Amino acid sequence: MNISISQSPPIRLNPRQIAHYVLNNNLPAYDSNFSLAVRITNQYGKLSKLIAHIIILAILYMTIFRILENQLWELTGLPNLAKTLLILLLSIFTTEYLGRLWSAPESCTNLSIEIDDIRENEADYYYRVNYLISFLGIIDLLVILSILHNIVGSDLNSWPNYVVVLGLFKLSRYIPGIEIVGAVVKKERQILMASLISLGLLVVILSTALYLAERNAQPEVFKNISAALWWGIVTMTTTGYGDITPITSTGRIVGGIAMLVGMAMLAIPAGILASGFAEEIRYREQINNWQIISNLELFKDLDSNCIADITRHLRSIVLPKNTVVFKKNSAPDAIYFIADGAVEVQIHPRPPSTITLQKGDVFGETGLLENRKRNATIKTIRATRLMALDLQDFHRLANDHASLKKKVEFINLSRKTT
């Protein structure tokens, strides 16, 4: 017997909710409920992926067109097609912009409730203004205006035509790695800013010291402190162009100090970002685990402290396709939750139809609850990430949380009577 999220009828979303989901691949008011989020994904996930692929291709083509414009048309031999393609890009990005603006109120994390028209209009206005003044909202608008300038402008080399390159920032909506970079920098901004300010102060101090040491020996090179600042930036960032170098003994000592200090100071942001990445990935994995665990029937209605303890004791297991998780008649050692992927339950004799467990399902609980050997073989049918709760941890949690223990005892009793 397995415990999984029950199949429910399709969720009825209004057009604005659908627009928000297909453009953002999320619907915050429903994302906190894993089972609802899975059902929405099953209904609209393919459409969201199609829209994402269209926008990604448009962004890449737009950038290639701007950077390799002349070479592109020489290779393709279709110079007259340029304006037509620009109009197509303008249509895609304008539709996307208007869709995001219209559906912006759906970024609210609460389900809609009955409120009067005035309060509803105020809420809609707030979320739409928030999108308009956001970083990506401004980028969306600048890209549209730049493409429009490309179409109607006569000078193809004017700087507004190159603003479309900023559209690469739009990829952060579709490439998780870019979005994680932004999240880490935002979280660690105070420490990063402090280290950058410290580096800037040292650049000024050491550049001034080098100017005083070299101004008499190289008056043409070190005309003023501003010229020495270029040397300071190049040296302390370990770039080392070599266009400005000290020749006096004092100047070389200052230069050596600048190199060592520069390497030390640059190592600080690198360490901060590395630890920030690890923490952010761990945090997101815990949130994902929480969503899956809190919506499983076995743990449903448990308090947040109990679910938090369960999440902390989970260990992640990544298995390739066609890997046996455990065999029939093996000793029970853990309960397994499917975080991503799918597994097949192999029972002998085989049932009429194949039993497949998907993301969000749980297996291996029967042997653990009843303390008996496994009654089936479990095998992955594609690359799968599992979360395992070990036998000892499960019993320890059951002793610490009476609600969990009662839940387990009730499920075990119900199975014996069925």
Strand content: 5-15%
Cα radius of gyration in angstroms: 30 Å
For the largest beta-sheet, the strand count, sense and barrel status come to:
4 strands, antiparallel
- Strands of the largest sheet, in order across it? 1-8-3-6
User: Regions with pLDDT < 50 over 5+ consecutive residues?
Assistant: 1-7
Task: Report the principal-axis shape.
Answer: extended
Number of strands: 8
Please give the share of residues in helix: 55-70%
| Structure classification | alpha+beta
From the N-terminal CA to the C-terminal CA, the straight-line distance is 11 Å
Tally of separate helices = 15
Please provide the ordered H/E string of secondary-structure elements: HHHHHHHHHHHHEEEEEEHEEHH
Mean pLDDT: 82
